[in-house]
Amino acid sequence: MDRNTLDEALARGKAERRRFESLEYVRFSDGFAGIARGTVQLPDGRLLPGYPSIGRIQSLARGLRRQYAGPFWAEEKIDGFNVRLVQHDGALYAFSRGGFVCPFSTDRLPDLLDPTVFESEPALILCAEIAGPENPYLEGSPPQVREDVALFVFDIIRGADGAFLEPPAKSALAARYGLPMARSFGRFTADDQQALGSILRQLDAEGSEGLVFKGEGGGGRTKYVTGRSNIADISLCSEQLLDLPPEYFTNRLLRLALFTDELGSADAPALERELGRAFLQGLERAVARSREVGRVGHRFRCRFRQRRNAEHFIAHLEATAGRRVHIAEGSPHREGDYWILEFERILQRMTGTLANVLAGQAQFD
Amino acid sequence: MDRNTLDEALARGKAERRRFESLEYVRFSDGFAGIARGTVQLPDGRLLPGYPSIGRIQSLARGLRRQYAGPFWAEEKIDGFNVRLVQHDGALYAFSRGGFVCPFSTDRLPDLLDPTVFESEPALILCAEIAGPENPYLEGSPPQVREDVALFVFDIIRGADGAFLEPPAKSALAARYGLPMARSFGRFTADDQQALGSILRQLDAEGSEGLVFKGEGGGGRTKYVTGRSNIADISLCSEQLLDLPPEYFTNRLLRLALFTDELGSADAPALERELGRAFLQGLERAVARSREVGRVGHRFRCRFRQRRNAEHFIAHLEATAGRRVHIAEGSPHREGDYWILEFERILQRMTGTLANVLAGQAQFD
């Protein structure tokens, strides 16, 4: 990127200089002059392109026909958070979607990935999902990760052009270096409705989030989620009913109905009950918490290798979430080889509304 | 009301002159100088006070203690629309909450009410709920009205002061003239939790909407709804998921959880299933309609005694809902003694979103 573009972006507040330990980098907080939001410039001038957002289809048959004239690859969509991994000056860094160094992911990389690949391919960019019950960002986690977190590479950028490797080249490279990958289900065309339908029914039964489709030859990308992934989201977030944008829930309800409409449901009464319970159990939990401790929140727990990174993460939490976060007493604390961080995100609207309601106030609506 | 107040309200657009057939009246479209929204002034200067909105408690125990130091009356809350009935120049008129003459209600009064009471009490104002499956405004209807509509008086204003009669005086007057009334469950204090709890569990099982509490001696009024009335609302409105304010659904989910938290639920799995089905069946209906006819809507059917009133109502629909309403081909049509009006309210966001989704478009969210 030429010097003027960078200076103008900085001057206009579209980009900002950041520092993590000894690493100084520039992050694009907005799209600017064709540079995507989340793009990062490293000290040596290398650009880490912002990861593009992927369109959602909600009708498998019609969506695939409309989006793909030719073949596409189907890979598992992992319910985690998106990071881009790069090596700089012999150190590995994980950048968040927004272009910040993520202290948690960066700290844990030695546990999650064999770095050998970067010895022979120092300019590689790995795009990966970090997912699991002990992640500090998301309530959800995929069924195949039972504890802590795991990493799933789903895209690789090799050249300076910033283009993603085609899935076969990506798989070959991943196999050579033993990179943990998101499952690939192979190459399809829009005519393979039957095969894709049964893969999605299987993923739905397993509790997987769904599929990402990648057009061959750099074709477009789309995603399609399973019906049950919507119920899982509602179940995990129903105690945040008044704190999340209400569309969080209405969109998932509609997606669930569209999934069952198109792919059917093995047991409709069971599905209806799962959905009702997803709402009721979380809400009853929230009411109980409000009565017991006067507040409603969601608790997170994650582990760090280095105390210093836990402190970086706490600083980030306090900068972004402020009073809405309670760091647990005595956190981080040592357990075996790790520093355990526990904190609670306070759900302010649920806390306030339930406090008023349970105090007997009358609402006018 | 003095002339200046009226002139100023008219000048400021807080009130407007309206006409229904030969009746000319003034309607307050906003609160003004202590005059409530929905207040109506008749040609003889009589004032029809706007009906006050009633606060909702969502915790029975705490709510009643907080709202009522003394005794209160508990009456059934009817799931219908609110009208105020008056006689003027020997004719009966029904005014809506907003202060408009309702052509439907006014047309049907001879079927719904014995007008004898107005012969001996010409200045009486009856506040009533009109409810039933054949009403032109609401999707819902109470279990005790199996067809057409019925009328339930719940308040009576006798004096020029505009005060509501105390429940005993109201019941006595209603009994004398055989007025159809909302059920009264008697007089209670905040200590009668047990009794009120079992009444509400009974109402919940019957599918009734809930209770309205009226403090003795003109004390405050509050309402409390049953858990299942929330499921019924969701079930009737889930095909409007994207057209109603999303709070319509989130508020009802929270009320349901608060009801079961406080009053329990006979059969939790059944309740969970009812809730899930309430969402899924309506949404699947909407998806099916979109695929079949390319639009999603809610159909209404109601009957009129006089064709002219049906035409007044159609004019009102077209003025207020415009292109969002389709009057059925050949409506109103004669059936026996009535003119049947059928129309469909088009759900524009559901129609548009489902059309795009089912055409295979990708959404970025």
Quickly list its features.
homodimer; 365 residues; alpha+beta; D-amino Acid Aminotransferase, Chain A, domain 1; Alpha-Beta Plaits; 3 domains; five-stranded mixed sheet; four-stranded antiparallel sheet; 11 helices; 17 strands; 25% strand; globular; RNA_ligase_Pab1020 (chains A, B); RNA ligase (chains A, B); ligase activity (chains A, B); RNA_ligase_dom_REL/Rnl2 (chains A, B)
> What amount of the residues of chain A lies in strands?
25-35%
Characterize the overall form of chain A.
Answer: globular
Gyration radius of chain A, in Å = 22 Å
Euclidean distance between termini CA atoms of chain A:
54 Å
Question: What number is the mean pLDDT of chain A?
Answer: 95
**Total number of β-strand segments of chain A?**
17
Q: Which H/E pattern describes the elements of chain A?
A: HEEEEEHEEEHHEEHEHEEHHHEHEEEH
Q: Enter the CATH topology name of the largest domain in chain A.
A: D-amino Acid Aminotransferase, Chain A, domain 1
Chains forming the largest contact: A-B, 56 and 56 residues
How many strands, which pairing sense, and closed or not: the largest β-sheet of chain A?
Answer: 5 strands, mixed
CATH superfamily of the largest domain in chain A: DNA ligase/mRNA capping enzyme
Q: What ranges of chain A have pLDDT less than 50 throughout 5 or more consecutive residues? A: none
Total of DSSP H or I helical runs spanning 4+ residues of chain A: 11
Oligomer: homodimer
Tell me the structural class of chain A: alpha+beta
Structural domain tally of chain A? 3
CATH class of the largest domain in chain A: Alpha Beta
Helix content of chain A: 25-40%
Largest sheet of chain A, order of strands side by side?
Answer: 5-13-12-6-11
CATH architecture label name of the largest domain in chain A = 2-Layer Sandwich
